[in-house]
Amino acid sequence: MPGKVASMHDAVAEIVRDGDTVAIEGFTHLIGFSAGHEIVRQRKRDLVLARMTPDVIYDQMIAGGVARKLIFSWLGNPGVGGLNAIRRRIEPAALAGERPLEIEEYSHFGMVARYTAGAANLPFMPLRSYFETDLPKANPLIRPIRSPFSDEVVYAVPPLRPDVSIIHAQRADASGNTQIWGLLGAQKEAAFAADRVIVVVEELVDESVVRADPNRTVIPGIIVDAVVVEPYGAHPSYVQGAYDRDNRFYLDWDPISRDEEKVQAWLREWVYGLPDRAAYVEKLGAERIASLRPGPAPSGSVDYGSYR
Amino acid sequence: MSDLGFTRSEMMIVAAARELAGQHVCFVGVGLPNIAVNLAQRTVAPGLEMVYEAGVFGARPARLPLSIGDPTIVTGATAVVSMWELFGYYLQRGLIDVGFLGAAQIDRFGNINTTVIGDYDAPKTRLPGSGGACEIAINAREVFVIMRQSARSFVREIDFRTSPGNLGGAEQSEAIRKAGGWNGRGPTVVVTDLGIWHFDETGEMRLDFLHPGATLDEVRATIAWEPKISAGLETTPPPTAEELRLVREELDPEGIYTK
């Protein structure tokens, strides 16, 4: 296979290093579960994990012992409840003397602004938020700043520059030119902000497919280090047009996540005990996968025109 | 189910949806706001532009979104944008009329905590945190809140101020909001499982409607301060058959929000 195409094993082994700041972005949509599982499988350590919504994937990764710190803005199992494995590593009553997980907390706008500053190579990003709240007290990196052009005071957040950003997408070519449709979250910003980028896609396409619809390209190959092709790699989250969120999984995770032994047993069965995503998909079963297939709703096409 | 023919959660959701009559652009928060706003779009506010922080303007969800990032909010929407654009160009620019939020704790002035119960550095309970709520509370023109009443949630002092309400009272809030260039004037309504609260001239919550079957004793037992009760207290009109059908058959057939 030409270009940057790599196996998930090799991409994670070569690109993710112990101690790195890693951002697996994708807001509810396109969450990189298969990449997260590979990081657990390879027993990476002391990572700083960044993500607006840590979601079930970071609950699993943090339970897998890969992280020393979490940077986030909304800590929950969306539509279900809490992230209990993470909570057990934050709430003193559950810690039993263990060292707590370090946290650094923002609002969504603050996290998006951090990635944007990182992507655009700026020293900070101003925003109209945080006024009269306790967030700047909880996180001293959220600081008030006076406008150089008026007396207005806004808050500023520092750039977030992950060592590695991992983005799941519908499709890319072998050079890493990546196209996404549906919710875009802050994937573009997280990718441009990062030193190294892994793109995981449902489908590898020819360069001509990308060039036929350049408005849909979110991440250009010039910032991509590896392209991993892994269908259903975002399960149990979803991929617009390809498969729906597996809500049963999110509901089932709640009772599992409340019991540390059950969490570890789940990781043994579904992560450590499997070689890769293909094995996970096979274990999940064709019927479960088929049940997640949405009906069709194709976009109209546009004519870019030919100019010779 | 009470002998009234509807549950308190159903009454709360229906009452919250009705508050959106006449509103144009609503930012939909996590949890109960999601079902209330979707009901409003099917009843009192058919032209309502639903905005989801995940990056959607003008959502037309065919099913109740499982979360605020469900694929059904994308298909058929007016626009899908990055979260930078959503928070910057739509919210911070001042296009949002109503921000509809839930809360874990609220005080008499409508200040909201969704971050921790107990001390921040050593929390008794770690809650989800802000998400977009902090900037919604500051930049949406007004804020609606939907939450169940309990003495643990309607407290004298919230443990952490995640999202500002009327701060220490209306006078202070108006001065700070004006001086700071906030888009929003703060919370205007809190809908609970027992009634509907608006904010009086001092910026404090006042009970204006009591839901059918609820009592003032219950209201007082589920609130940590001596609440203001309107002299003209009214009874909330019960849900119509159509409102109940939409909630039970279309929006929440599994009873996730209404149990």
Question: Could you characterize the architecture of this molecule?
Answer:
The complex is a heterodimer of chains A (308) and B (259). By secondary structure, chain A is α/β, with parallel strands linked by helices. Chain A is 32% helix and 19% strand. Chain A is built from 13 helices and twelve strands. In chain A, strands 1, 2, 3, 4, 8, 9, 10, 11 and 12 form a nine-stranded mixed sheet that branches. With 259 residues, chain B is α/β, with parallel strands linked by helices. Chain B has one domain: Glutaconate Coenzyme A-transferase. The chains are: A alpha/beta (308), B alpha/beta (259). At the A-B interface, helix 6 and helix 7 of A face helix 3, strand 9 and helix 4 of B.
Layout: helices, strands, pairs:
The complex is a heterodimer of chains A (308) and B (259).
Chain A: H1 8-15, E1 21-25, H2 33-41, E2 47-50, H3 55-63, E3 67-72, H4 84-88, H5 92-95, E4 102-105, H6 108-119, E5 125-127, H7 135-138, E6 143-146, E7 153-157, E8 164-172, E9 178-179, H8 187-193, E10 196-204, H9 207-211, E11 217-219, E12 226-229, H10 247-257, H11 260-272, H12 277-284, H13 286-290
Parallel strand pairs in A: 1-2, 1-8, 2-3, 3-4, 8-10, 10-12
Antiparallel strand pairs in A: 5-7, 6-7, 8-9, 9-11
Chain B: H1 8-18, E1 25-28, H2 32-42, E2 49-52, E3 56-59, E4 79-80, H3 83-92, E5 98-101, E6 105-106, E7 112-113, E8 116-118, E9 123-126, H4 133-139, E10 142-146, H5 170-180, E11 187-191, E12 195-199, E13 205-210, H6 216-221, E14 228-235, H7 241-251
Parallel strand pairs in B: 1-2, 1-5, 5-10, 10-11, 13-14
Antiparallel strand pairs in B: 2-3, 3-4, 6-7, 8-9, 11-12, 12-13
* Count of DSSP-assigned helices of chain A: 13
What's the helix-strand series of chain B? HEHEEEHEEEEEHEHEEEHEH
Question: What is the structural class of chain B?
Answer: alpha/beta
E-strand count of chain A: 12
Distance between the termini of chain A: 32 Å
Greatest chain-chain contact: A-B, 56 and 52 residues
Low-confidence parts of chain B lasting 5 or more residues at pLDDT below 50?
none
Identify the CATH architecture of chain B.
Answer: 3-Layer(aba) Sandwich
Largest beta-sheet details of chain A: 9 strands, mixed
Helicity level of chain B: 25-40%
Radius of gyration of chain B: 17 Å
Report the top-level CATH class of chain A. Answer: Alpha Beta
What is Rg of chain A? 20 Å
Instruction: Please report the number of helical segments of chain B.
Output: 7
